[in-house]
Design brief:
- The protein has a domain of about 35 residues.
- The chain is about 20% helix and about 0% strand.
Length: about 80
Amino acid sequence: MKNLILILSVLLTSCSTLGFGDFSDQKTEVNTDRSTKIDESSSGKIPVKFTYQPLIGGRHEVFLVGDFNNWSQTEITMKEAN
């Protein structure tokens, strides 16, 4: 019985240490020493560059999807840059 209690307490302690037992709704802010400079225009848009390198030679079509185009799988085709 003592072994069972010991195993159970070790298991519960391990789970809470890994974050499995933390169910609080409090938000925690983490401050770092790093700062990131963002080139933002007056419109609030941030330029983003997407790149793709196929694993096997040949030509492939790559489509960019997301919330910005209503998840359309054919609206934005990436073009090859020379």
